[in-house]
Design a protein that fits this description.
Layout (H helix, E strand, L loop, with lengths): L4 E3 L8 E2 L5 E10 L4 E8 L3 E2 L5 E3 L10 E9 L2 E2 L4 E6 L2 E3 L3 E10 L5 E10 L5 E3 L4 E3 L5 E6 L9 E9 L5 E10 L1
Parallel strand pairs: 6-17
Antiparallel strand pairs: 1-3, 2-3, 3-4, 4-7, 5-6, 7-8, 7-15, 9-14, 9-16, 10-13, 11-12, 16-17
């Protein structure tokens, strides 16, 4: 009978300098048995990092919401891991008002010119809670994983904690987090 031991090592937020890219955070998990298995996840927020370890996202002042793609790569024994599910969470949410948006009804005149003749408002969404990050994503054949992060202008000057995690063997959940300052 082969006795398997599970050793979980989650690194704290440290700066890993690569020759190709700038800052990365690496989460490493090792399972020791007859076959050594090492799973490495590297978070790549694609943002500048300050000397305190905080990442900075500059919000667009001309839009309500600023969209930014957060990325990462996952490897098993150095080989990209395909179709690995990731769970993303954010410390911040925002709320919708009563009106989500509107439709402008347009039609053609006898001269085949478009005209707007009515507007329908989409209502009934008062106090609907909207997360600032998509909850789930899967890695592709290159081991790349992506999610969209969308803070709103009213969150300017806040620091948001973004957590990402994944299950290794249906029972072991590995996670790490980064902090993003909204400038």
């Amino acid at each position: 009978m082969v006795k398997e031991t599970l050793t979980l090592l989650v690194t704290s937020l440290t700066l890993i300098t690569s020759l190709i890219s700038c800052e990365e955070i690496q989460v490493s998990q090792s399972v020791s048995s007859e076959d050594d298995i090492e799973i490495v996840f590297i978070v790549e927020p694609r943002l500048d990092q300050d000397e305190n370890g905080y990442y900075h996202l500059e919000l667009n002042p001309s839009t309500f919401q600023t969209l930014h793609r957060l990325s990462g790569h996952i490897y098993r024994n150095g080989i990209p891991l395909d179709v690995m599910k990731f769970n993303w969470e954010s410390s911040h949410f925002w709320m919708l008002g009563d009106t989500l948006g509107y439709f402008i009804h347009r039609g053609l005149t006898d001269d085949l010119e478009y005209v707007s003749y009515d507007t329908t408002y989409i209502t009934g969404f008062s106090d609907f809670i909207v997360p600032t990050i998509n909850c789930c994503s899967y890695s592709n054949s290159d081991g790349e994983v992506n999610t969209m992060f969308g803070p709103v202008w009213t969150m300017r000057s806040d620091t948001i904690m973004v957590s990402v995690g994944y299950f290794i063997d249906y029972t072991t959940f590995v996670s790490d987090s980064i902090e993003i300052v909204l400038d």
